[in-house]
Amino acid sequence: MAIKLYNTLTQKKESFQPIEEGKVKMYVCGPTVYNYIHIGNARPAIVFDVVRRYLEYRGYDVRYISNFTDVDDKLIRAANELGEEVPDVAERFIEAYHEDTGALGVKRANEHPRVTENMDEIIAFIEALIEKDFAYESEGDVYFRTKQFEGYGKLSHQSIDELKLGSRIGVGEKKEDPLDFTLWKAAKEGEISWSSAWGEGRPGWHIECSAMAQKYLGDTIDIHAGGKDLAFPHHENEVAQTEALTGHTFANYWLHNGYININNEKMSKSLGNFVLVHDLIKQHDPEAIRFFMLSVHYRNPINFNHELLQSAKTGLDRIKDTVENLEHRLENSADLAEDVAAWKEKIEEFRQRFVEEMDDDFNTANAISILFELSKEANLYLQGSNSSKEVLELLIERFNDFGSVLGVSFRAEKALLDEDIDQLIEERNNARKERNFARADEIRDELKDQGILLEDTPQGVRWKRM
Question: What is the CB neighbour count within 10 angstroms for residue 291?
Fold first, then answer.
């Protein structure tokens, strides 16, 4: 059965056909690293991590790229307010991003390219657009000629006439047309900048993803993903500048996740309902946060409040209790059951149903419902006096398989002693000093799976049991 996914470009579900059989090239827009991420940033990190995991579960070799915007207006303002240099602020919040998303079970991308490390490619991309007459320089700035790209608006399904109504030329901009967007910004006095043929400056926001996607994945990629808010103008502009340069389709499938509301209101600083992941994971089990995020289909809006999060925690614990009881029975029972074939068939049906739901545009909400059904059936099985070790092993294996796709562990872990925790933290600190971030992440994840939450502070690492 083919995987079907909803393509924003065509506004319909399509059967997934990768460019190269058995391989997937996937680009997900990452954060601007001027602060800790909020739960709106966490949602795409989690849902597209699940998309990646499921594609791998289905046998695909996934090359997953997610960028960091480590220079832009917000970062420059943050650095000025903090009295620090832009690279220092970016580095601190990149590390914080890895810590926070790692606590949420998000695997690191194959590459996390940064704008500042790909400046040559970005400048070359802009130069090529100018050579093709799709871009022009104006007093040190460089703009993209939007109307010259015939397909502009096709991703967000807006016409040029509709877009004109909301467009304007801002103060200090020297555009040929209000619809034109910035590729390169001339540096203001005291700002961080790079040398180019148009003078000192830095890239506009949209150009970075086009240049880095091309560098790490090629002219055409399989999947480009991000939050719904990025469809226009960010992704629309990526399509225009990339396809103008290459003459090829930029991405075959565009995936966008829905918004997060806080107590049925849009999240915003002005409403005082801005929730940072860094704070949230100190109050709640990070695994429950992830489970909650996956309890609604990724394209739908999701309403967040602490009661709903606690409900997700209760449901997750119920499944964990089932798995713990299965493991206990496996260790302590004789192999006496006679209905092995019927149960094996039933367990296989659960696997098929799980795959069918995930094949249908990665429907984690329905997949989780199947998990609860499996948990109910497993508990009924445990009520019997006799049980088969083969059936118990198959049930545990199925929970583990489903958990690996969702990025949640249902295994009941033995409690660690304080000295064991301190020893692992010391090992993690040494791994980070040696820049062995993969091992550092493994240790953090191992501790998280056993209910130990780490917090990196200027005074060192603190930990607590969740």
Answer: 25
Pairing status of strand 221-227 against strand 23-28:
parallel
Residue 90: Cβ within 10 Å count: 25
Of 379, 419, 385, 427, which Cα lies nearest the Cα of 399?
Answer: 379
What does pTM read for this prediction? 0.88
| Four-CA torsion 160, 164, 167, 168, nearest 10 degrees | 130
Helix (H, G, I), strand (E, B) or coil at 361: coil
388-400 residue pLDDT tens: 889 999 999 999 9
Residue type present at position 442: E
> Which residues define the annotated binding site?
29, 209, 234, 238, 269
- Alpha-carbon gap, residue 93 to 105, rounded angstroms: 18
Residue ranges of the binding site for ATP: 269
CA distance 316 to 417: 24
Q: What residues are designated binding site for Zn(2+)? A: 29, 209, 234, 238
Rg of the chain over CA atoms, in angstroms? 24
> Residue 439: what residue type?
R
Going by C-alpha positions, the residue among 439, 452, 328 that lies closest to residue 389 is 328
Tokens for 271, please give them. 């409403």
Q: What span, in angstroms and rounded, lies between the C-alpha atoms of 7 and 135? A: 29
Sign, CA dihedral 30-32-37-43, equals negative
Q: At what angle do helices 119-131 and 236-246 cross, to 10 degrees?
A: 70
Dump pLDDT digits (tens) for 257-266.
Answer: 999 999 888 8
